[in-house]
Structures are given as structure tokens and as C-alpha cells.
Design goal:
The complex is a heterodimer of chains A (322) and B (501). By secondary structure, chain A is mainly α. In chain A, 75% of the residues lie in helices and 1% in strands. Chain A is globular. In chain B, the strands form 4 sheets. Chain B has a 7-stranded mixed β-sheet, sandwiched between helices. With 501 residues, chain B is α/β, with parallel strands linked by helices. In chain B, α4 (112-125) crosses α5, α12 packs across α13 and α12 runs parallel beside α14. The chains are: A mainly alpha (322), B alpha/beta (501).
């Protein structure tokens, strides 16, 4: 970065950032309008909610945690495996007759513990987050597979399926949960000390540490949040599916990173927002939805998703100016 | 004398802010032309314009009498301009020879022996004794700088821009730099020299150009002006005379360090700082001063030793613990260890206050705490929402000082309080340190600027090779005595009034 000794109008960066956030929203809305006229059966409340919103919900929940981790300058590749581990343990406990609420809490604790291990390896042993979570991604998957012997856990309790997989006022609960979590984690990032420290650590961890702040604690916390949200996303998913598979969540890390980054979170850390992750997830889901409606083959859908991610980065590069 | 470079009526704006206003500058063959101005005066912008990083909005630039437009540093280099950056731009893993010849290696298949042979004369010219195959990361900062200069010479640069070349050098290394600069000018190279140190300008410069707030103030022959006249040109007013503060009266011991060791870095450091006292760790770069300061704050591990604050032992050292016990710390490397560059001034200032629970993150709350500090410290622009990266070095330093003032501290550890900042901010920071001491804060400082050490300190502890080499009271202290202790020179060690440890 260039050292700038030049004073320029003060709020320039924040305005540009707002515009960029609005930019993603604009692309999303523009896309929706265009597709409404060009793609048959795209324009319907049902498609908007169940075709796009619901499928974006899971990704959004995972992407919130990932956004926090990425803001500190880290990465969490283990979210998919963490999700699988939490899902099979939760499902197994329910099948054994444990009350669903207790099983959910235990599954969330499993996710938190998985995140805690990541966080401690990053902060105490000072390993690179990429390496740590690459390792645990494999390890947690191995745990999930060994726990079930590779078999899916079927027939979850109906009450549980209704509670997390049902509707309220016509809105699917996973979507409501995702929106509430987006709101909560946006507020935390903006209006709490913890959120401000997480942002500051991403900007310059050493400066924050030398200000007398226990940076390790905050960094670890982001991994715990990421693990817990991955576990929660998995619980929501198995309520919809009615079964928990140990291979659940493969590739989640990539779609969540994509949603975060398309939403304006910088992989270099220090900058990012949760609403952006939601918009990013919606954009990716909408694209997939349209291609499916058009009967485009899955291979081509991958091409389009890849282009969106790169396109978003190119736009980011040029709107940032320097 | 031939004119190597001439810039006329240069204007440059960024987002509507006029940073260079009708500035002129010229460089003759064989001269050192110093560029002087406070931070934010437009020096860096002018240098970057001359080096092709920025293109001026209007104005003409001629090199050797020919009008040119520089679109990139590469353009500048083809016109014989080289820049020695403030932050060195070498590749640490590559050898000296590879760095000197970077982009100019010859054939696709590298012939290391031949490359090393090619660079030897250039290294000799800048007085660098390191072997050409040494990786640059093993060199000292001063040696690395010589590699950069050798690279400029290898490219046959006729115009060399040096942006604060001495900011990380010891006195001895600065002398060596002078020799190299004089040899370069003797061979007809013109040097544009930026420094905040008047003694360097006095020693080297033929002419001096002063900028203030982006305006061209004037160009003078160095021999014809006094330091005071230059300062007046820079700040537009006369600074209060830099006389020593009256004696302060130290109170009880606040910081008590006993037998602090870090294997291989420093050993057996025992010192005390009283309330209302400013104690300085002086010594050469590499003597272990910064390391001691960081260890006291718990930023780096120690092998053994004990620290007491106000008579209470601190069982486990860490920045978080020390902060809570009322110890503040300002690191040497402001950019990497002080500021969160992309965060607002208010956030940068409130980091510690938040942790202490003094201020919430609500904007209104922060304003109430930040604005009085900004006013007291004279931070400009007086906008708490400004991104700190856009402030000058002096203002950034004041924000970090404000961080500890807002949070309150009984002991303040400051490493190089005025490194790379302008004269006016320097005076402000001296005043603030003095005020803090008067309020009963115990200040332990590391500084390599001897006039600063002499001006601020009640006591001076001199380190040499990881150990305390001696102590000087304010009355005993002089530049010569500090240097004698720091280098281990014999002459002054015999002086009975100085007790060597």
C-alpha cells in the first residue's frame, strides 16, 4: 500500500463502500427484473422464497461465520466437515431418544468445540489458518464418517423436522433464521466492542495487540462462531432432508467464501459485512435457480458461478480505485 | 552547471484537494538539492511526480533540457531517475547481486559468477563490503540502503531521489552515507534529498527548496540561510525556542525492572522509573533498547526477570495485563505496529479505552471522548471519521498518543517518539511528554536522536550490546558522553563523574 500523506475528503471510502454494497443489491434487483421477463416461471412468490431464498439460507448462515473469520484475516475451510460432524451427532442423539432441544444444543456445542480447536491452533500454536482448517476439514470429516460407520442416520423425529424445517406465515423457517442471524451479526459487528475489535484486528492485529487487547481471544471467537453457525446450518438442513449424512456439507466452504467475497469482504482482512454475504448468497442462488429453470446442464451452471465470482472481484478491483 | 531536471508550474489534485500548487523544482548536475517541508506539505507527492508514480495535472517537466512526460517509474528510470525509498524496496531472499541487477540480469539463463563480477565495482563505489552472493535479508538496514544506491548506480542514474535515507541509520552509518553521496555528486549525479534533520541538510545540501501546504515557498542556497530561517519558511511562523524544560520533581518508583533477561538479546537489565520522570534508553541501533521496552510491556517473551508496578509484582507479562495495570506502549514502527491503517481516527484512538470499559462504541460516546483529545493534541484535520492512513506521520503519532491519554496510564513506554515526523509535530510531542511527566506519569523512552534524548530526559540509561553500559543524569549528559558509553569508547569512560555499570 502506498503511504499517503495527502489529505483527501474524509468520508470518501465509506461512501464508496456503501455504493458497492448498493451495487450488489442493484445487480441482484436488475437480475431479478430481467429474469422475470425472460425466464418463464421465474417471477413468482414461491420461486423467490423456495427456489432462491431457501436455497440461499443455508449458505448465508455458513457465510456469516466465514465473513467474521475472513475479516480477521483468517479462513475456515472446515465448515462443511464441522457441519457434518454436528449433524450426525445431533441426529444420532435424537434417534436414541434424547429430547430434540438437548440434541440441538449438543450439536451446536460440537460445532463450537470444532471452531475452538481451529481457533486455538491458529492463535496459540500460531499456525496459518489455511493449514489448520485444511487439516481439520479432513479430520472432522473423518470423525463424522467413523461416528456413523459411513451410513446416513435416517428417520429424524417429526417434531424436529417441523420445528426447523417448517413455515411461519408462509416463510420457511431456515430463511427466517438466516435473516435474523444476518441482522444479529450485522449489529454485533457494528455496535459492539467485540465487532469493532474483530474489524480492527483484520486491519492490523499487531497494533491492536500492542494497545493491550487480547487479540487471540477475539480471533478464536470468530472460529467458534464459524463452527457454531456451520453446525446450525447443518441442523436446519437435516430438518429439511429428514436425514443426516456424514458426507453432508461437502463444498460448503467454497460457496460460503464465494458469498462473502462477492458481498465485499476482503480476503486480506479488515473489511467486510454480513449483509454483503447475504446478498452474495442470494445472487449465487438466483443464478443457479435461473439456470435450472432454463434447463441448463449442471456443468454450465458451474461455469456461470465461477464467472460471477471472478466478475465480482474484477468489479471490486476497479471500484476500489488504487 | 547543467540542469539535469526542471519542473515548472506543477499542479496536482486528488479528489478536489489541491496538493501541489504551482510548484517548481530544478536539479543541477553534481548538486544535492534538499526538499524540506512538514509532513503533508507535498514533498512525497512532488517526489512521486518526479518519479512517474503520479502524473501532474498541469505543468512541465524537462530532463536534460528536453520536455518529458513520465507515465510510470519505468519511464522515470529510462530517463535516468532512481529513487531510494523510505521503505526499502529490495527482495529479501535474493542476493545482493541479483537485487542490484534486478530487471537487468542479462541472458535468460543466469550466470551468477558473471553477475557477481558485474556488481563488484558498483558495490565498491558505495563502500559495501558484503559479498555479492549474500542474501539481502542478512544485511543491516544501512547495508540494504547501499544496495539500493548501488542499483541506481548500476542503472546509470543521473538523478537519484533519496526520501529520508537516514531515518533508520546510526550516526556512523549516516557518515558513510555522506561519503557515498559526495562521491556520487562528484561524478556529476544530482541528488534530491528529503530529510527532517537540519544537520544533514547543513552537511550535504547545496540548495534547499521549501514547500508548505502544497505551495512553493522558495529555493535558497544552503550556505546563505540559518536553520531558524528554514524553520520559519517551513512552518510560516517562528517556533518557540527549543530550550530544555525546567527540572521536574520525580516521585515514588512506579516501574521497577529487575534482572530482565532474554537469551541472546539482552541480559540483566535492571532499572527504575519514578513518577514524573522521563528516563531514556539510549544507545546504538541493535543495542537491544527496543527489545527491552517490548519485553517490559510483555510484547515479547523474557527468559527471566521481574517487574513491579507501584510496588506490586506483575506475575505474568502480556500487553493485555500491562494495559490493565496502567502501562501504555507506543511502538517504534507506527505503520505496522501502531495504527490500524484503514480504520477511522476515532477507532484508532479508542482501542484501549474500549477494553478498559471507559467508552462504548456508540458514535456519540466516542465523539465525546475523541474530540477533546484531538483538540488538545492539535490533530489535523480535526475529523474523527477520517481514515488514519490519510493523516501525516506526525498526526498519526498524536492519535496513538491520544489512545493512551484517553485510556489513562501511569507508566508510558515510547519507542522513538518522533521518528519520521515533522518539526512542528515534534515540538508538540515534546510538550506532551513533558506535560505527562508533570502529571506524574513515569515515562520510559527509547530514542536514537541525541538532541531529543538530551532535551526530554531526566536520566539517560545507555545500552551497549544488550546490557546497560551506564547511566547519566541530566546534568552529566552530553552527546559525546552518551556516544562514548554506547560505543564503549575509552576516553570518556575514565571520566569519574559517569558511573559505568
Amino acid at each position: 500500500m502506498q503511504k499517503t500523506q495527502v489529505s483527501t475528503p474524509s468520508n470518501r471510502t465509506t461512501i464508496i463502500e456503501r455504493l458497492r454494497e448498493a451495487g450488489i443489491l442493484a445487480i441482484l434487483l436488475l437480475g431479478a427484473v430481467v429474469f422475470s421477463f425472460t425466464v418463464p416461471s421465474f417471477f413468482s412468490v414461491d420461486n423467490a422464497i423456495n427456489g432462491i431464498g431457501l436455497s440461499a439460507a443455508i449458505n448465508t448462515i455458513v457465510a456469516i461465520g466465514l465473513t467474521y473469520v475472513i475479516i480477521t484475516g483468517g479462513i475456515d475451510l472446515s465448515v462443511g466437515s464441522t457441519a457434518a460432524l454436528a449433524a450426525v451427532i445431533g441426529a444420532d442423539l435424537m434417534q436414541r431418544g434424547l429430547p430434540a432441544l438437548l440434541a440441538v444444543l449438543i450439536a451446536l456445542a460440537v460445532g463450537a468445540a470444532a471452531g475452538l480447536i481451529n481457533g486455538l491452533l491458529v492463535t496459540r500454536v500460531q499456525l496459518a489458518p489455511f493449514i489448520v482448517t485444511l487439516g481439520t476439514m479432513t479430520f472432522y470429516r473423518g470423525l463424522a464418517l467413523s461416528y456413523t460407520g459411513g451410513q446416513p442416520i435416517l428417520s429424524l423425529p417429526d417434531g424436529y423436522k417441523r420445528a426447523l424445517g417448517g413455515d411461519v406465515l408462509g416463510l420457511p423457517i431456515p430463511l427466517i433464521a438466516a435473516l435474523l442471524l444476518v441482522a444479529a451479526f450485522t449489529l454485533i459487528l457494528r455496535y459492539t466492542k467485540t465487532g469493532q475489535y474483530i474489524l480492527a484486528i483484520g486491519g492490523n492485529a499487531e497494533a491492536v495487540r500492542l494497545s493491550g487487547i487480547n487479540t487471540s481471544r477475539y480471533i478464536t471467537l470468530t472460529y467458534v462462531i464459524s463452527g457454531m453457525l456451520a453446525a446450525f446450518a447443518a441442523l436446519v438442513l437435516i430438518a429439511q432432508l429428514g436425514a443426516a449424512e456424514p458426507i453432508l456439507g461437502s463444498g460448503w466452504e467454497l460457496s460460503a467464501i464465494a458469498a462473502s467475497v462477492v458481498g465485499g469482504t476482503s480476503l486480506a482482512g479488515g473489511k467486510g459485512n454480513v449483509v454483503g454475504a447475504l446478498l452474495g448468497a442470494l445472487l449465487l442462488s438466483m443464478l443457479q435457480n435461473v439456470l435450472t429453470l432454463l434447463g441448463v446442464q449442471a456443468f454450465y451452471q458451474l461455469l456461470a458461478t465461477g464467472l460471477i465470482i471472478i466478475g465480482a472481484m474484477v468489479i471490486d478491483r476497479y471500484t476500489r480505485g488504487n | 552547471m547543467t540542469e539535469l531536471l526542471s519542473a515548472q508550474h506543477i499542479n496536482k489534485s486528488f479528489s478536489g484537494v489541491h496538493v501541489l500548487k504551482d510548484v517548481q523544482f530544478s536539479l543541477r548536475a553534481g548538486e544535492v538539492h534538499a526538499l524540506l517541508g512538514e509532513n503533508g506539505a507535498g514533498k512525497s507527492t512532488l517526489l512521486k511526480t518526479l518519479f512517474g508514480i503520479y502524473t501532474p495535472d498541469s505543468g512541465t517537466l524537462s530532463i536534460a533540457g528536453q520536455p518529458v512526460t513520465l507515465h510510470s517509474p519505468k519511464d522515470a528510470q529510462t530517463h535516468g531517475i532512481a529513487m531510494i525509498h523510505q521503505e526499502l524496496a529490495l527482495i529479501p531472499e535474493l542476493s545482493v547481486a541479483q537485487n542490484v541487477l534486478l530487471g537487468n540480469e542479462g541472458k535468460e539463463v543466469l550466470n551468477y559468477a558473471q553477475m557477481e563480477a558485474r556488481v563488484r565495482p558498483f558495490l565498491a563505489q558505495v563502500g559495501l563490503t558484503a559479498a555479492p552472493n549474500t542474501p539481502v535479508k542478512r544485511l543491516t538496514i544501512a547495508q540494504q540502503q547501499m544496495v539500493e544506491i548501488a542499483r541506481a548506480v548500476a542503472r546509470q542514474a543521473r538523478i537519484i531521489i533519496m526520501d529520508e535515507p537516514t531515518s533508520s541509520l546510526t550516526t556512523h552509518e549516516i557518515e558513510q552515507l555522506y561519503v557515498v553521496v559526495r562521491e556520487l555528486t562528484a561524478s556529476g549525479v544530482g541528488i534530491i534529498y528529503v530529510s527532517h534533520h537540519f544537520d544533514e541538510i547543513e552537511a550535504l545540501a547545496d540548495r534547499v527548496t521549501v514547500l508548505r501546504d502544497g505551495n512553493y515557498i522558495g529555493t535558497v542556497d544552503q550556505k546563505d540561510v540559518t536553520q531558524d530561517q528554514l524553520v520559519t519558511m517551513m512552518v510560516g511562523r517562528e517556533l518557540a525556542a527549543q530550550d530544555a524544560p525546567e527540572d521536574r520533581t520525580p516521585g515514588a518508583v512506579r516501574l521497577d525492572v529487575r534482572g530482565l533477561n532474554r537469551a541472546g538479546v539482552f541480559e540483566d537489565v535492571t532499572l527504575q522509573v519514578h513518577a514524573g520522570e522521563v528516563v531514556t534508553l539510549a544507545g546504538l541501533i541493535g543495542a537491544g533498547r527496543t527489545e527491552v521496552l517490548r519485553a517490559i510491556y510483555g510484547a515479547d517473551p523474557i527468559s527471566s526477570g521481574q517487574i513491579e508496578l507501584d510496588g506490586q509484582p506483575v506475575p505474568r507479562l502480556s500487553p493485555a495485563v500491562m494495559m490493565r495495570r496502567g502501562v501504555g506502549f507506543i511502538a517504534e514502527d507506527r505503520r505496522h505496529q501502531g495504527i490500524v491503517p484503514d480504520a477511522k481516527v476515532s477507532v484508532n484512538m479508542m482501542l484501549t479505552s474500549w477494553a478498559k470499559g471507559l467508552v462504548s462504541v456508540r458514535e456519540a460516546d466516542m465523539r465525546r471522548s475523541v474530540e477533546p483529545q484531538m483538540q488538545a493534541l492539535g490533530i489535523r484535520p480535526a475529523n474523527p471519521n477520517q481514515t488514519i492512513r490519510r493523516l501525516s506521520g506526525g498526526n498519526q503519532q498524536k492519535v496513538i498518543l491520544g489512545r493512551w491519554l484517553a485510556a489513562g496510564c501511569g507508566v508510558l513506554l515510547i519507542d522513538e517518539p518522533t521518528r519520521g515526523i515533522d518539526v512542528a509535530s515534534k515540538a508538540d510531542i515534546y510538550r506532551l511528554v513533558d506535560e505527562l511527566a508533570r502529571q506524574g506519569v513515569a515515562v520510559l523512552m527509547v530514542s536514537s536522536e541525541l538532541p531529543e534524548v538530551l532535551r526530554l530526559s531526566d536520566r539517560i540509561l545507555v545500552m551497549r550490546e544488550g546490557r546497560l553500559a551506564g547511566e547519566l543524569s541530566r546534568a552529566q549528559a552530553s552527546e559525546e558522553r552518551i556516544l562514548a558509553l554506547a560505543t564503549g569508547a575509552q576516553t570518556h569512560a575514565k571520566d569519574p563523574s559517569i558511573h559505568a555499570v
